Amino acid sequence: MCMRSALGNAGRFLFRLSTAGFQKRFPLTRYSGYKQILSHKANRQGMVLSISHSEILAKLLGFLDSQIIDVSYPEYDLINLPYADYQFNALVADQVLEHIAGDPFQAMAESFRVVKTGGLVLHTSTFFNRVHGENDFWRFSPTALRLMVGCHGEIIDSGGWGNLAAYFLMNLGLNSELIPESRIHPANWIATRNHKKYPIFTWVLARKC
User: Fold this and answer.
1) The domain that contains 64 carries what CATH number?
2) Fewer CB within 10 Å, N or C, the chain?
3) Structural domain boundaries, residue 102
4) In terms of pTM, does the model score above 0.90?
5) How far is residue 4 CA from its own chain's centroid?
6) Are 184 and 133 in contact (CB under 8 A)?
7) Is residue 23 part of a domain?
8) Which helix (H) or strand (E) holds 18?
9) Of the candidates 41, 28, 45, 59, which has an alpha carbon nearest to the alpha carbon of residue 157?
10) Is 6 exposed, middle or buried (0-12, 13-18, 19+ CB in 10 A)?
């Protein structure tokens, strides 16, 4: 077993031991971003298209299970979706854009194409992160995501979250560990501390014009 794997196993064991008994909700790298997206939750109407198991984003916005249609990229190509114009009330894609094998600007435009006027488009992605998988092609700052929305929509919310302590924990394999809701736990402090120069998780939420 390599040193990194051994450290990762030990880190996960100690982390889970330290968080036992705490109420936990969101993973480390998504904790603050998901909380921000959750602030836009409302009673939503119509259907939402979820790309590659992004149902949690749809639920954070207020859509119910019965309103969610989930399809997987690349079987359903985000650059050329097999749907008519204005078909959905929203499209959500959680950490998909960086894996698009093509023009990400076109993927963003296609996201808006299938959404009704006044509907929502929500993309999350990553910026300060190590390469993950063979189809890891892109990195997006919050500024880049806003640029890609362009004239397609009105931006409701856009931002990024990250810090160097979180990046260290990620490299120990703790990026998917659920964070305690209690502020007395050090992991909660790390998950809520933000250094704008080191965004790990980035997002943009926009309304189609």
Assistant:
1) 3.40.50.150
2) N
3) 40-129+148-208
4) yes
5) 26
6) no
7) no
8) helix 3-19
9) 41
10) exposed
